[in-house]
Amino acid sequence: MSQVLVISGHPELDSSYTNKVILNQLSDNISDIEVRRLDTLYPDYKIDVEAEQQAMMKADVIVLQFPFYWYSMPALLKKWMDDVMSFNFAYGPEGDKLKGKDFILSFTVGGPEESYDPLGYNHFTIEEMLRPMQQTAYLAGMNYIKPIFTHRMVYIPGVYNKLEEVEARARDHATRVEAQIEDLIYSPENRIHKFVANWFAKFDRLEESTDQFTRSLADDVKWTVPEGEFIGHEGFRDWYALVRKVFKPNCDHVVEQVEVNKSEVGYLVELRIRLIAETFDDSVMKGEDINLLVNETWQVSFDSNDDIRIHSYEVVPVNS
Known about the structure:
This is NAD(P)H oxidoreductase YRKL. Residues 3-171 form the Flavodoxin-like fold domain. The protein is an alpha/beta fold and 320 residues long. The protein folds into 2 domains: 4-186, Rossmann fold (3-Layer(aba) Sandwich); 205-317, Roll (Nuclear Transport Factor 2, Chain: A). 34% of the residues lie in helices and 28% in strands. It is built from 10 helices and 12 strands. The protein has helices at residues 19-29, 38-41, 49-58, 75-84, 126-129, 131-139, 163-186, 188-205, 211-214, 232-246, and strands spanning 4-8, 33-37, 61-67, 102-108, 143-144, 148-150, 217-225, 228-231, 252-263, 266-277, 290-302, 308-317. The strands form 2 sheets. Strands 1, 2, 3, 4, 5 and 6 form a 6-stranded parallel beta sheet that branches. Strand 7 and strand 8 (228-231) form a beta hairpin. Helix 1 crosses helix 7. The longest helix is centred in the middle third of the chain and has 24 residues, at 163-186. It starts with a strand and ends with a strand.
């Protein structure tokens, strides 16, 4: 499994003075990485959707590397997104395949920074122009990471910029991408963020087995929920059995907010979760559709194997 997948969206990478430098440095310095060059894979623009989707599902971090063309991405990369980010893959009732993955936009900008301003000749900020891609990440359930971009990344011999300066900026850009990826993969806070996303993705399915949950619970975990207080793995199993009698599978836990702070015994995780679900007719909810907002507080730590363990878990409804 490649932890990092980089999609190169430059239509002619071999002619690039910057994107090529960035990709070469990332390939040299990140051990578990796959770089997919769309210009060599799909010069005819006929995207192998299954191959691209498989590559995305194997990755933890997905990076789109591209030059900023006409306030957006190159046509080849847009075609890739249109084809690959399909219904029931990236969105839709079964479209959870990218949920919880980290999504980074890394791109080069030709114009100067001051031009992307209400008073500049481009009138809008870069961040404003990225809204469609930000929403794409949100719709797919991915973690939209702050984009990394660098200005003045065009070299026109004798006209615009010096080659050595542009290449230096490209190397600095790659270093920033490396640092962001390292932080995403290794920092405790970001590992907890990813754990939260994966936890609720599993909960949505409401499968019969509890093993996928109990392996992340401390032996004496304390579970405080509206149904009561439950202790240990057996207590969790009792509560989970109650939940499966009420809620139909394929519910949707929307993680609206996550805050992670260090505590005396590990990390305190405070969450705002919206549960959207259907209930069984013969349950206590009598078939009512649920749209419930709750606050959750977790106490977690990392065990001797560096795996996350939940020690306490409290759920308090905000509305009903």
